[in-house]
Amino acid sequence: MSGPISGRRENRAPQKTGTLTGAFIGQKDAAAARFAEEVRPFVEITDWLPDPSQGYGAIKGSAPALVFAHLGDDPCNGLGLVKRLVKAAPGTLVFILAPHKSPDLILEAFRLGAADFLVWPVNNGEALAAVRRAVENVGAAPRPGEIYTVFSLKGGQGISTVALNLADHVQRLSGDKVLLIDLNLYLGDIGVRLNLGAPYSPFDLHKDLHRLDRDLLFSSLLKHERGFYILSCPDEISDADRLQGDDVTQMLSVLTNYLDYLIIDLPHDFSTRSLAALEAADNILLLVQQELAAVKITLRVLDFFRELGYDRNKIHLILNRYLSRSELEADDLSNILQQPVFATLANDYKAVSDSIATGKTVDLSSGNSPFNRDVKKLAAKLTGITVRESARPLWQQAWSQVLHGFSRKKEATAV
């Protein structure tokens, strides 16, 4: 998976005159205090956040010039936080502090967009020099938004349903700018599913590219009540050949300068448009179901992706309409396709049908459905944002206790 990238990421260098402000995420112990003292001639650490779980909200709100995040005992959580901070505060330089060098951690840190990886404690003067060097070296190169394409060469796999509800959950989890793009240019149905028109389509966007800026884009895009934006196709059948692969590449390149996530609903083909979107994608969500025909076609698609030279880590196999009792289990599919199943989405026909009938996302119409919970987990896994499972309602806990007591009584009677 590509590194965290986000909308309109002009990585401007902080002011090089005077003292910069910084924040430290981690315990304020003696080592941390010594670090703050060493970098003080260049950076004044004004905020101390001992609880990493509070770091994201605080940094996103204040956006200091620099952030120093100590990985602590759980590097995975620390790196996940860094990923979110880089996305939330594009003008902030994020430094990772760790007690030891680790090639894998260093590689992952830079892949996530960290300004530098600092081993601390070290000899006096080294930390200050490293921070100065990173600030001086920061450029003005944009960090484009992250692109997810949802794809299947076989129809009926639930592409539009997954793309729509994934956009909903990514926006709800991240609070970032999320755009759902319908590239089914002949007859896209995202607008129809939501009972919304298509005031601004990919065709309109293509015409406006030469004069597009932030104000024009966000005043033209349709914004759903849930907070994500939509670029859907006209209700009537359109002339898709007006857009070629190069046009799609150019459009995505421009859009990623303004948005944090692009989620693309792709048609079931390998047209130049689809290939352009797949090539630009940071993550390809390849949908498959537990049926022989779908598995055979997916196997051909994976072979084709390998011929194109796609990194296997870019491809995420999504088992949609998952049934726990099936002749083809997730492990079976992984073995057949030689690709691990990245996520399973429960088969919940009623919830999905109700959402389509009411023109709502599944989270709005059937929030407690298994499918909705699975899509939320998928969004969390893709974005690196931790989802805390809410406690079961009291009535469910009480009913569970009743059933458990009944079961124990029945076992005792049997004995």
From TrEMBL:
Xref: InterPro entries: CheY-like_superfamily (IPR011006), P-loop_NTPase (IPR027417), ParA/MinD_ATPase (IPR050625), Sig_transdc_resp-reg_receiver (IPR001789)
Domain Response regulatory residues, every copy: 21-135
Coiled coil ranges: none
Biological process according to GO: negative regulation of cell division; phosphorelay signal transduction system
Superkingdom in the source lineage: Bacteria
Cellular component terms per the entry's GO annotation: cytoplasmic side of plasma membrane; cytosol
Start and end residues of each stretch annotated as Disordered: 1-20
GO MF annotation terms: ATP binding; ATP hydrolysis activity
Protein name: Response regulator receiver protein
